[in-house]
Amino acid sequence: MTTTLIHPTAVIHPDAQLHSTVQVGPYAVIGPQVKVGPDTVIGPHVVLDGRTEIGARNHIFPGAAIGLEPQDLKYDGSVSLVQIGDDNRIREFVTINRATRADEVTVIGSGNLLMAYVHVGHNCVVEDNVIISNAVSLGGHVHIESRAVIGGVGGIHQFVHVGRLAMVGGMSRVTRDIPPYMLVEGNPIRVRTLNQVGLKRAGIVDLADGQVFQSLKKAFRLLYRSGLTLEQALEKLELLPENEHLQHLCRFLQLSQLEGRRGPTPGRRKGTRSED
Questions:
Q1: Cβ atoms within 10 A of the Cβ of 101, count?
Q2: What digits encode the pLDDT tens for the residues 85-111?
Q3: What is this structure's pTM?
Q4: In this structure, what DSSP letter does residue 66 have?
Q5: Closest to 198 in 3D by CA, of 216, 219, 225
Q6: How does pLDDT run across 191-236, given as a tens digit for each residue?
Q7: pLDDT tens-digit profile of 136-175?
Q8: Which end of the chain is more exposed for a tag (fewer CB within 10 A), N or C?
Q9: CA quadruple 141, 146, 151, 152: dihedral sign
Q10: Where is 119: in which H helix or E strand?
């Protein structure tokens, strides 16, 4: 039978709610509004504070700080939330700030890997099965869709959206939305090609006898190699046979142009080498 393992040097507020199978390492500090689900491991010197809800089977490594006040001058002390799903690995010295306003949420989904020194700012949403490499900083209100991969030592501007199965190269400065299924890198950052490795791993290359993948290749060429404006390319994309992934790409690009969004990252400049 599994029993609770709490190191005697851990400081846990009596109002904190920890499942009986939670393990807590030396010198961890857990505040009164924290809830932690079954089989989660909280490493040494971890700080969990504020209104923080953590699901099952997470592993939080030494020095992580989750649920502290947002780094936002607008913050007025309101009770906001960090919500973390299941099966995440949150590595050393990761910081995840709670949201700015009352009843707002910073969300980490399930199955994610946040490597060492990642910072997740207030009101961010990280969906499921995302990999964020070492020393990446997410500004406030960043939204990262499922199965995206973010290369190390980069910064993502506040309010940027990163699409499903996108791949962001290391040391990139991301100031605009990253379309789904694309590989982007450089300074300034540009869409280079489809994220073919990610699409293969996700099984999309073989969907419908390869027709879904071929539609995404056509979409890439229309968007980034044809010389068409974004609006013209989107009109042509509507003529292609529909599938869920192509529709998601088109919807993402349409929403990216709305007021309050950052706008999509462009493709390579004319005259640079093609990588499609």
A1: 15
A2: 999 999 999 999 999 999 899 999 999
A3: 0.95
A4: E
A5: 216
A6: 999 999 999 999 999 999 999 999 999 999 999 999 999 999 999 9
A7: 999 999 999 999 999 999 999 999 999 999 999 999 999 9
A8: N
A9: positive
A10: strand 119-120
